[in-house]
Amino acid sequence: MRACNLLVVCINSPLYYALYDDDRLLESFSIDEKPSTALPLMYQRLLESSVCVQAIYYASGPGNLSALKLTHTFLHSWAIVESIPLYATHSFALLPEHYIYAFGKKHFIMRKNIAPSPTKSPEQNLALITANIECVLCENPPHSPPFTPPAVLPKSSFCLPCEPIYILPPV
Questions:
Q1: Which pTM was predicted?
Q2: E strand spans, 97-138
């Protein structure tokens, strides 16, 4: 068995995941299914491979509310059952300069590029991040390229609470 870190980005469809050995990218995958189908498929593929997940890093939002809830519940349960550390960051840390789909014609944008800081508490980081994320109406958002995992796992960015980042605009 090979011990690896797992990076998961499942804020909508498709699900992206990557394996890191000694924080260096080994390989990356995508599953073009809804999160309710993609998450168990990812888990099954990892169980069938010779990979032992030693830590899970994931994007906790913003994104599609259902996808965020499913991803958080699935990964948190997995982490508890197998005693695996779980770490979270915001979606823009892994998808910089992107419009992230919310619903309808609404998209999330980050007004100012803010990086979480390991010197601040997770709650302080979360407050700073959410204060700079805005949900905007966008008739024609620019095309966002598919997720490309970083060559080196940016562990210092993963210092947010392991909970979904729900940002709901007024209706």
A1: 0.92
A2: 100-103, 106-110, 133-137
